[in-house]
Write a structure and sequence with these properties.
331 residues; TIM Barrel; eight-stranded mixed beta sheet; 33% helix; glycosidase; cellulose degradation
Length: 331
């Protein structure tokens, strides 16, 4: 991916997966909800998003509190850990044989405290086209894995962001038709659920609105709530708002969410641990009735993008950078 891409920066393990192959029907039409009808009211309004007690931020905050409970670092990391961020579902951590039970447990825990979990589905075959976040499932296992996640969320209120970078990278990777079909599989799987689903659309420094809209339309954005922008990136909210509105106008009024976890200073064109950045707006639904449904922390802001600009391996927690982001935001 070139410098305009997200480069999600996730640490990946290796797990051998084995499970029966279950055919997943691609007939979306019987479950279709048009973008226009889905736009009747913001489904995220009034929701409290789930704060994962096992997040990397919480682990860091606990360690800091044990080392020096009265330190400024412990207080800042504790505040970071209180912010709801997305839970990334990757087959390396949530394999095919346990993913349904794992997601059910998370959704149940969120329901018990009256919160709505945000999930990122990130297991598409040839994920990241073999770059830093390489991995993913086989062509045969992927539909089954997604269907298992959907089954767990059939009657559970949740937000699902489907396959960051998959569509945005497709032109560069030369697999547009394959990616469109794979995202359609996800759309079909979640259609009978109550999950609020957003397809990933890249961001304002990557695709033109016309290109993003074309990919989203082909992948079935009209059958879900809308799309997500700026996942794991740093573009400011004004740029993403303009991009989102332009894409929305070309997708039948599809709504969108923005990853604001690290966009407080708007980035500098770098995707991998750029210096001088800040936390962005905290996660919350919007209330202005416009096309933007919410600000979300999709990327945990203290996690490294990779071994660049002094960072640790991709996906590892980086205390120094987390504290810098917080300080720059005035925390």
């Amino acid at each position: 991916m070139d410098s305009t891409g997200s480069r999600l920066g996730l640490s990946l393990g290796i797990i051998t997966l084995a499970a029966p192959i279950v055919a997943l029907g691609l007939f979306i039409g019987s479950f279709a909800v048009t973008a226009t009808s889905a736009a009747a009211g913001n489904p995220l309004a009034g929701r409290s998003f789930y704060t994962n007690p096992n997040s990397t931020a919480q682990v860091a905050a606990t360690a800091a509190a044990v080392a020096d409970p009265d330190s400024a670092a412990a207080a800042t990391l504790g505040k970071l850990a209180e912010q709801p961020s997305a839970i990334w579902l990757m087959p390396e951590k949530y394999p095919l044989n346990t993913v349904q039970a794992d997601v059910t447990a998370i959704a149940d825990a969120a329901e018990e405290v009256g919160q709505t979990p945000v999930f990122v589905v990130y297991g598409i075959p040839d994920r990241d086209c073999g770059n830093f976040s390489a991995g993913g499932l086989s062509e045969s296992d992927y539909p089954t894995w997604v269907a298992s996640i959907a089954t767990a969320l059939t009657l559970k209120a949740s937000v699902v962001i489907l396959e960051p970078d998959a569509l945005a990278l497709a032109t560069e990777c030369g697999n547009v038709e394959q990616r469109v079909a794979q995202i359609q599989q996800g759309v079909a799987a979640f259609a009978p659920t109550v999950a609020t689903v957003y397809l990933d659309a890249g961001h304002s420094d990557w695709l033109t609105p016309a290109t993003a809209a074309d990919l989203l339309n082909r992948a079935g954005v009209a059958q879900v709530r809308g799309f997500a922008t700026n996942v794991s990136n740093y573009n400011d909210s004004a740029a993403e708002q303009a991009f989102g509105e332009a894409v929305s106008a070309l997708t039948g009024g599809a709504h969108f969410v923005v990853d604001t976890s690290r966009n407080g200073r708007g980035g500098n064109g770098e995707w991998c641990n750029p210096a001088g950045q800040a936390l962005g707006g905290t996660p919350e639904a919007t209330t202005d009735g416009a096309s933007r449904d919410a600000n979300l922390w999709v990327k945990e802001p203290g996690e490294s993008d990779g071994t660049c600009n002094g960072g640790p391996a991709a996906g590892e927690w980086w205390n120094e950078r987390a504290l810098e982001l917080a300080a720059a935001a005035g925390w």
